[in-house]
Amino acid sequence: MEMSLIDLLRCPFCGTRLDLVDNEALVREGSRVTWGVLGCQCCAFPIIDGIPVLIADDPTRAAMHAMEAGRTDEALASLLGLEQSIAKFAAPVSVQLERGLVAELLRHRRCQPTNLQVRRNLGEIRQRRDVDCGELADVITPDHLTVTPSVPVTPYRDGFGNWCSRIVAPAGRVQLRADGLVRDSGLPDVAVPSANQHRVEDLPAETLVYLLGSRYCETDQLSDTAWKLFEKTQPGWARVQAICDFVHNHISFGYEHARSTMTAFDVFTEGKGVCRDFAHLAIAFCRCMNIPARYCTGFLGDIGVPKDPAPMDFSAWFEAYLGGRWYTFDARHNMPRIGRIVMARGRDATDVAISTAFGPARLGEFKVHTDEVMESVVPALMAA
Prior knowledge:
The strands form six sheets. Strands 1, 2, 3, 4 and 5 form a five-stranded antiparallel beta sheet that branches. The two termini are 28 Å apart. By secondary structure, this protein is α+β, with helices and mostly antiparallel strands. It has helices at 3-6, 58-68, 72-80, 219-230, 237-250, 264-270, 275-288, 378-383, and strands at 19-20, 27-29, 32-39, 44-48, 51-52, 108-110, 114-119, 127-130, 135-141, 146-148, 154-157, 163-169, 172-177, 181-183, 252-253, 272-273, 293-300, 315-322, 325-329, 340-346, 355-358. The chain is globular, with a radius of gyration of 22 Å. The chain has eight helices and 21 strands. Mean pLDDT is 80; it is low at 82-112 and 121-137. The protein folds into two domains: 3-93, no CATH class; 98-384, C8orf32 fold, CATH 3.10.620.30.
């Protein structure tokens, strides 16, 4: 495929231009590309033997996975649906990895065909930059969503800019799975104690929605309490940190306290909850004090801290708008952490549910893994 033709290609899902990714899978002969990856803001597509394959189905994903591992014959066979033994003539790609994270989510049961919306994790792109928070996470192995039994998967962006996937899940047992490998900076969450609080009239228009009450963050019921608790704190970073300190000390953490209907006012009154409840109460207090705050969900493994013996789960924290940008705060752990990977952002947990079913559904099994991967095992993981 000629380089001049790549400039004409557009993603069939989001309509944006496709760019050639400069990685180990790229094979060029002069101005012609024979093997490689095309990426945009939502997807990644393989170039197989000079042919761009702009399809997001399981054989194409398998082909790209094989190609990125150097198994080009296997990639071509997968794309053509051939079942044959492929000689592995290329060594796995070597990646200089600082820190990696592997994530997996599993298994829903359905009793009849059900529409299902699933949050996408790291994104099917080669690089992801969270401009608001100044983070850079390199996607080494995209976490393509796979569904068993196989059904069409349609990606889209929601109103908060999060990538989601839509499927119609057939009756019976349905398994959802995604595995990804990313390069993290290895640095803890950014802390800027000098970050100032904006006057409401100076806030960007797009932040104003995060001053309003929402499903789980009742600013109307908590406003008086917030001002009594935090009116005398220094506006800006110190005020948000004071809110985190209060919430961290006020709430007793325990998985047995979790319930889907618990709101910020409930957790303030009861003094117990899980990580999402810590986030909801801190968000509500921030909004009451005229600080935009938004809910985040994602992966937070036990990296740089003692291992938690409890089964791993998705984590929840929040971001506050200070000094012209969004900063990460975590009232649950109340300390900078390493390896925090954002999956979705919204007003509260309503906007960032891991999955939303529009019909009868029962969760049969649920597993999350977020683990640090040493550099020496990366080639094996990419070849698997």
